[in-house]
Specification:
Largest sheet: none
Number of strands: 0
Helix content: over 70%
Shape: elongated
Distance between the termini: 57 Å
Number of helices: 7
Oligomer: single chain
Order of helices and strands: HHHHHHH
Radius of gyration: 20 Å
Length: about 120
Amino acid sequence: MKPGIFKKIEDKFFGYMKMSLKSFEELLRILRTSITKEDTRFRKSIKPEEKLTIVLRYLATGCSFAELHYVFRIGISTVAEIVREVCAAIWHCLKEICLPEPKKEIWYQIANGFLREQIFLTA
């Protein structure tokens, strides 16, 4: 199943990927260099768009690697490697954006929030 099929019909794309086309394109833009491999004389590499599609489908649905192997017509071990590679790239590329290390002031706010909650629960 190629991801380009659904790009023509945005609501179908969202239903399949559990993500808007715009979000998919942005995520692909961020990850592209991390998940792109060169073609060799022996085989063509799997394109970043297809790798991201496989991983998002896996994460969104909980499909087994065996199911993805049939849907995308690639080996089970290849699916497993793609999932590992792309998930590592997602973490590496997005950790600072999505989970920035809190500054001292933020830690104080977090601590005060817990303290207020504790006081509320004991009162």
